[in-house]
Amino acid sequence: MITLTLLHPIQSVPVQSWCFESESVVRIGRSNDNDVIIYSAVVSRHHVELWNHASGWEIINFGANGTYVDDRPIAQVSVADGMTIRLGNSGPKIRIRVGATNVQTGKITRSPQRELADQKDEVSKDKSTAWSLAGGIIEDDEEGALTHIDLD
Predict the structure, then answer these.
(1) What whole-number distance in Å separates Cα of residue 104 and Cα of residue 6?
(2) φ/ψ bin of 117: left (φ > 0), alpha (ψ from -120 to 50), beta (otherwise)
(3) Mean pLDDT of 70-78
(4) Is there a smaller number of Cβ atoms within 10 Å at the N or the C end of the chain?
């Protein structure tokens, strides 16, 4: 299982999350055929892919403006639980969480530190107002789910 969380551009708090349980490839970009769609001028149509190998997840950059980890451009790197990537030098940030599913309970197994971080995320999920004030545009569907995020 892998969870991707779009972070607020100023406050670095969660804005939206996507969870993938059994996919072998997760695609991120501006085009509507991606698994995670992010509308930003610095995000390429097909910006980055995450591949699930037997040895773990791997990130592969395809974006013209690059993908960065710790302010360093990457071409292809292994995913570490809790790492944050940036799409483009000044683009949106995405935190990546990787967890193993407990076969007996069906729940994700995380360290106590990761559990605490997840609890803090739950408290700060409703950041739509702050996001709008920071210049982002968020559109909700009838059930209140985010359907469109514009970072420009």
Answers:
(1) 30
(2) alpha
(3) 97
(4) C
Give residue for tokens 């790492």.
83
DSSP 18-68: EEESS-SEEEEESSTTSSEE-B-TTS-TT-EEEEEETTEEEEEE--TT-EE
* CATH architecture of the domain formed by 2-150: Sandwich (2.60)
What are the φ/ψ torsions at residue 132 (nearest 5 degrees)?
Answer: -60, -40
Which residue type occupies 37? I
Q: Which residues 6+ apart lie within 8 Å of 110 measured at CB? A: 99, 118
Q: What is the pLDDT of residues 27-72, one digit of tens each?
A: 999 999 999 999 999 999 999 999 999 999 999 999 999 999 999 9
Q: Which has the minimum average pLDDT: 18-22, 24-28, 100-104?
A: 100-104
Cα 134 from Cα 123, distance rounded (Å): 20
The number of beta carbons lying within 10 Å of the beta carbon of residue 32 is: 7
Query: pTM, whole model, 2 decimals?
Result: 0.68
Rounded to the nearest integer, the mean pLDDT of the chain is 79
- How is the chain split into domains, by residue range? 2-150
